[in-house]
Amino acid sequence: MVRMRAFEDQSVRAFRSGLAGGYLHVYTGMEATAIGWLSSRQPDDPIITAYRDHAHALYLGIDPVVCMAEIMGRAKGTSKGKGGSMHLYSADHHFYGGWGIVGGHTALGAGLGFAIKYKGGNQVAHCFLGDGAANAGVFFEVMNMASLWDLPVIFIIENNEFAMGTRLEFHAADPEMHKRAEGFNMHHERIDGMDVIDVRRDAQRIISNVRETSRPALIEVMNYRYAGHGAADNDQTLYRSQQEVELAWKRDPVHRLANLLTEQYGVNKQILEKIQREAEEEMEGVYDEAAASPKPEPDEVYSDVYTDMQPERGH
Amino acid sequence: MTTTYRDALRQAMVEEIERDENVFLIGEDIGRYQGTFRVTQGLFERFKQHRVLDTPISEPGIVGIATGAAMMGLRPIVEMMTMSFSILALDQIINHAAKIHYMSGGQFKVPIVIRGPGGAANQLSAQHSHSMEGWYAHVPGLKVVAPSTVEDAYGMLKTAVRDDNPVIFTENPGLYSLKGEIPDDKEFTLPFGKCAIRHEGSDITLVGYSRMTHVCAEAAEALDQDGVSAEVIDVRSLLPLDAETIFASVRKTNRALVVYEDWKSGGFGAEIAARIQESCFDYLDAPVGRVGGLNVPMPYARNLELMCIPNKEDVLAAARQLLA
Ligand SMILES: Cc1ncc(C[n+]2csc(CCOP(=O)(O)OP(=O)(O)O)c2C)c(N)n1
């Protein structure tokens, strides 16, 4: 968790210094969700998420330098610099991205489940989405089909209470979003996303159930977005008070775990401080290494449009 | 009055909301959050939820609801956070809104405006950088405009709101901070289907719309230095298209270069080039030239992105080739 957070600090630094551009969305405050959940997956389970994707990529084991290089638009990035912060992918890590059109990837998530079932595999597809994304029409179509066809897919709504500048109460007719699965005869529940141990425990139970039954599930994980929507969201007073954010920091999943370790397991505070320091140093090094790496060659613009041909060149 | 493109759009909407009680705004984060590009800043406080409606992230639903409301006589202005997201609503726009007047034999009108930023911004990468105007200009039943100046943004948005047909109104994000004059006249409107000549010349005609008009104008100034006199035509309205003004210019200059940001292959510039060729063949001293965006999804890396979007140098190179 501290590595993820340190990475996000460096990604914001890259944005501020102009080394990263476009849209950049950090995961700060939501770490317990991705880690608790993904720590319970089977290594070959396919994972897909939206544009707030750095944490998932790191947890799945993608080299942080390669992730940071992508965020900086460098040749050694996950997508050779052509995707950027929102579009990290790694086939080797069963990470299917990194998607920018809100809700669109939920259909792909069900498609991953479809392929598993078709091939007779025992994996489960994990599809993360935001609370805002749960309003996309395609998501309703997909829940229906996933349930109709018994697809082994879990939709994990990372409910951080905001869709950009719109609070849950202004975008969802029923703020208990997990209930939407009810109409599709799909298992659903809401869990706390601020305690990594709890998330892990719940995830293990839910995932093994889906794996056994090949029935999809919709899980709403409650967490909170400490950062702005994206790095360019510079007036958060439009949708929340400073006080609310401070209050939410009291539930910080990193502190929660640290407290558990020191108070219940007698872990020495200095060890935790050392972990923290090492994470920060590591991610500073990641930043420097990515920043020093070369930009894509101009000809790269034409590659990967197709698998087997190049598009017509020139203006 | 001097203002910006962004503020001129807002002023046009304010005046139309005040003029006609059936006009309302609907879109994502346009109210409490003041709009992603701040075009709707202050309007929620001023006109309240009845006239400025925040929506969930549900583009097909938003456009469809606005279309149904328009059939009942309301005049919605739909903001697409970016025109790339209108792709989700293509079915509502093309299969529904654009067809209703015709399919009902003229009984139902759809006075709806769908507006928002279209085209590349700065490293928004492949899913957020589409130029959609050429796609829409392919569809009978829609009107499609792409204003390049502050005055046009103001006058054409007012026209769009008063139009009884569905209008696609695209705003290049690079233009929002552009400064310019607008008249002090609440009844000021600019008709669709009229090109504007931005720079007069006699040796070559550069045809552009939206931000590319400015790129053409920069190229024209550089050509002036070379002693070449370029005429810059701002298309402004793709559908209806004022081909006559373009033809008149080409008959004078005998050379034409069409510049557009969309993918070169099959983009709207191809349509303009074809029409020039059909109607001005005998006047042409060179083939009709085109400069369009590279035929690739928009890459994220800035150096690659800049390669994709036509710039002054690309226009100059193509113009010089036609003049050689
Ligand atoms: C189809 C579509 N509409 C609008 C947007 C613009 N947009 C990007 S993120 C976002 C908010 C999404 O919120 P949520 O799904 O809750 O995810 P979070 O950002 O909280 O992780 C919006 C409106 C988009 N990317 N795609």
Describe what you observe in this structure:
The complex is a heterodimer of chains A (315) and B (324). By secondary structure, chain A is of the alpha/beta class. Chain A has one domain (2-295): Rossmann fold (3-Layer(aba) Sandwich). Chain A has eleven helices and eight strands. Chain A has a six-stranded parallel beta sheet with strand order 2-1-3-4-8-7, sandwiched between helices. In chain A, strands 5-6 form a two-stranded antiparallel sheet. In chain A, a hairpin with a 2-residue loop joins β5 and β6 (166-167). In chain A, α1 runs parallel beside α11 (269-292), α2 (31-38) packs across α8 and α5 (104-119) packs parallel to α6 (137-148). Chain A is globular. With 324 residues, chain B is of the alpha/beta class. Chain B has two domains: 2-181, Thiamin diphosphate (ThDP)-binding fold, Pyr/PP domains (Rossmann fold, 3-Layer(aba) Sandwich), CATH 3.40.50.970; 196-323, Rossmann fold (3-Layer(aba) Sandwich). In chain B, the strands form three sheets. Chain B has a seven-stranded mixed beta sheet with strand order 3-2-4-5-7-6-12, sandwiched between helices. Chain B has a five-stranded mixed beta sheet with strand order 9-11-10-13-14, sandwiched between helices. In chain B, α7 (150-162) links the parallel β6 and β7. The radius of gyration of chain B is 19 Å and the shape is globular. Thiamine diphosphate (TPP) sits between chains A (25, 52, 100-102, 130-133, 160, 162-164, 225, 229) and B (28, 57, 59, 81, 85, 88).
Order of helices and strands of chain B: EHEHEHEHHEHEHEEEEHEEHEHEHH
Helix content of chain A: 40-55%
Low-confidence stretches of chain A: none
CATH topology of the largest domain in chain B: Rossmann fold
Q: What separation lies between the terminal Cα atoms of chain A?
A: 46 Å
Which structural category do the helix and sheet elements of chain B fall into?
alpha/beta
Structural class of chain A: alpha/beta
Give the oligomeric state of the chains in this entry, treating copies of one chain as homo and distinct chains as hetero. heterodimer
Annotated CATH architecture of chain A: 3-Layer(aba) Sandwich
The level of helicity of chain B is 25-40%
